[in-house]
Amino acid sequence: MLKKLIPALLLIAACSNLAAQKKAEEAMEIYTGKYPQEKVHLLFNKNSYIAGEKLWFKAFVFEGYNPSDISTSLFVELYDSNKTLITKKMLPIIQGEADGNFLLPESLKEGIYYVRAYTTWMANFSEDFQLVRQIAVYNPSSADKIQPLTDAPWTAAVFPESGNLVDGIETKVAVRLQSPGTSPADWSGYIVDTRSPEVKLASFKGFDGNVGSFSFIPKYGVQYRLTAEDTKGNRQNVDLPQVQDSGVSLQVKTGNDAVRFSLRSKNTAPGTLYKIIGTVSNQIVFKARSAKMPGQTYTIPAEQLINGILQLTVFDEQENVVAQRLCFVQPDLLKVKQPVLSGLALNENPRASNTFNITQPSESSPYTVLVMDGKAESSEDQNSLLSTLWLTGDIPSKIDRPSQYFTKNHNSDALDALLISEKWKRFDWKMIMSGTYPIIRYQPQPYISYKGKVTIQGKPAADTDMNLLFNTPGNGIKFYSIKTDAAGFFTLKGLYFEDAIKFSYQLNDPKIPKEQVQVIFQPDYTFVPFKNSLPKSNYILVPRTEDHKSDPQIQRYAAEKNIYNFMGEKATLIEEVKLKAVKKNRTKELNDKLSSPMFRSASETVFDLVNDNNSATGSMNILQWLQGRVAGLTIESSMGNYIPRLRGQTASIYLDEMRVDPSTINSISTADIAMVKVMKDAYAIGSGSSGAIAIYTKRGGITGSPSDSTAPSKLKQISLKGFDKQEPFTVPTYSDETFKTIPQDFRSTLYWSTNLQAKPDEASTVQFFNNDDAKDFKVIIIGYDEKNGMPVYYNEVIH
């Protein structure tokens, strides 16, 4: 969407463009074309956890302000406060989205942990732009507990608009607070001339815990000092930068209709022309040239831009940067599509069923939907998808609760002051204009890629044809033919599978024994070591007392974990029952296909060697394998043959329903047998009470379940690791009697779906069950418009 905006704006700029150096434009054109930037947002299923439970997350990967199509793999890692890697995941990115989960080990000590998310393409650039999120993990067994860092010291810093204080030019100044804990939300400040500290020249009140601002007219030769203080009496004194007697000041105002800016200067060379370049997400969207004309205002129509950070840079005639300013385009007209909730059937009674419908605003991607207890904290409370997309994904400095700048009641003046205090660090004009660009070490790969090397007796198998047989779950066996290069290498690209995939290989040349052939694989993907320091936490560890062990909040976390453990056990039982049912159905289908009505008996025992009982393939004789598997059946050995006896009588043997003697079975490989039936009563085929053994061989069209298929024994096998598989998120269904035995339900997450299909002609329905005490519900819905990439976002508490 952003690329469509550039031509229109450049046409506007062309009216005032004169022949001049274009080093900056040429450098930016190279940077835009070769070095697109990605950023990641993570939504967690809740805000804090207890050791032993699972953490679920949904990732949104953007290039600029649109879903990214650069990377197809996301790397997510979990660290403790000592930067020890606990676990890691590699997940597929589909249309800019990925999802997964971590198991938080029972052994984790209580503390703050860090989730890092990045793509390998992002690893080519500064680690400051990789996502690192803090999560609190509680453990009542730990000797220490975490508590918020209150009354932490804070510091103040001042930032004149465009970076300069110029004599006689009224200037807006941002005041920025920073703290290792939480900065004070209620604070104020004033400035004085250090020669007359008792006279306040300008006063202001902070917008929030991050920033405040004021305006004044500086005078050359005067040293100004800022005093900032909170309501507890804490105070900071900071000297403002020295006032310059000459220079350029860039002043910007943003509105719903346009971004307006003016250039004011003092004591600069007559006739000097300045070049102004505007960039959004590292792309030029505006450029013009201007002489120093006090009072002239330039206008960039907002209708031709999108929400996001606009960087305005002023260059002199030698293309030196003389002033810079960040601002946000249309801060009071955020282009977000909000889905409509309809058909609300809400019931605050304990464990009651609740439903609502999501009416699609337009052509939307599948929704990610999170429903929480209304009093629970969400990861979106601190840093939302919108704040990552429009602010923190590109501004890596610490910002307290950045989500506040994109809510319904946001303060656009606060956001503007915040951006005055920031610099755009995705690139540096001086560096790229000198031809210094990022070094690309990691190229994006299509999902999973492996590089293989084939050797024969330890030597490279150059220009050699090889067959690969992949056993893919759900898709059966697939055949591929590859050819090595002159060094014996080949590459497998674009693989998409979870967990691990087994495959067999064999050279086309049958003269080369398989024992002489070896294939070694090296993945083309990599987890990139984290070099940065972890962010400072807003929490500290203190010794745990007996009172802390009975903390009601910890007890709620523990009760919630017990519910998930209960559901996990039930889910395992259900899956086992389903698996048995599937195998039973497949065995029945096989029996119906192979056996005629005469060879069916109510007393039969069926062994399915296609879908089950693969251990039979390791036996030399199928009759020998039957020993001990059927009550009343014994297998005796006589003169090299195996004789079956049922209840003391010799049982008849049938091969594909033709009667044979035991010696015939010696020549039948168990790998060629599809099914065996032991019939204790076989009157229909004339065997009477002595019973019969019916053996059926494999025929055309008979194949097993994909998970049980095996490659021909002449091929060598190897296994490759794929993407990490996400475990399903389960919730209690109180309409099922089984779940009514749960003693306490204090779940904070009542519903979690990362792929709720958005239906074009009808609403999507969400159903969930209440916990024991929720009176209202926090609903978060995230998606994007597939036509223009506009975010679809909903974050409200409903009653």
Structure explained in plain terms:
- By secondary structure, this protein is mainly beta.
- Among the domains are: 448-524; 612-703, Ferric Hydroxamate Uptake Protein, Chain A, domain 1 (Beta Complex), CATH 2.170.130.
- Helices cover 13% and strands 40% of the residues.
- The radius of gyration is 35 Å and the shape is elongated.
Structure summary:
The chain is mainly beta and 799 residues long. Helices cover 13% and strands 40% of the residues. Among the domains are: 448-524; 612-703, TonB-dependent receptor, plug domain (Ferric Hydroxamate Uptake Protein, Chain A, domain 1, Beta Complex), CATH 2.170.130.
Widest β-sheet, arrangement of strands: 2-9-8-5-6
Computed structural class:
mainly beta
Radius of gyration: 35 Å
CATH class of the domain at 612-703: Mainly Beta
Number of helices: 10
Q: What is the architecture of the domain at 612-703 at the second tier of CATH?
A: Beta Complex
State the total count of DSSP E strands.
Answer: 48
Distance between the termini: 37 Å
The largest sheet is: 5 strands, mixed
Topology diagram in text:
Blueprint: H1 6-14, H2 23-34, E1 38-44, E2 48-50, E3 54-63, E4 66-67, E5 73-79, E6 85-92, E7 97-103, E8 111-118, E9 131-138, E10 144-148, E11 155-160, E12 171-178, E13 187-193, E14 196-205, E15 211-216, E16 224-230, E17 235-239, E18 247-254, E19 258-266, E20 273-280, E21 283-291, E22 297-301, E23 309-315, E24 321-328, E25 340-345, E26 353-359, E27 367-373, H3 379-382, H4 385-392, H5 412-420, H6 429-433, E28 448-456, E29 459-460, E30 465-472, E31 476-483, E32 489-495, E33 500-507, E34 517-523, E35 539-543, H7 546-549, H8 552-594, E36 604-608, H9 622-626, E37 633-638, E38 641-646, E39 649-650, E40 652-655, E41 658-660, H10 662-665, E42 673-679, E43 692-697, E44 716-721, E45 749-756, E46 764-769, E47 777-784, E48 791-798
Parallel strand pairs: 2-9, 40-43
Antiparallel strand pairs: 1-3, 3-4, 3-7, 5-6, 5-8, 8-9, 10-35, 11-12, 12-15, 13-14, 13-16, 16-17, 18-19, 19-22, 20-21, 20-23, 23-24, 25-26, 26-46, 27-45, 27-47, 28-29, 28-32, 28-34, 30-31, 30-33, 33-44, 36-42, 37-38, 38-39, 40-41, 42-43, 47-48
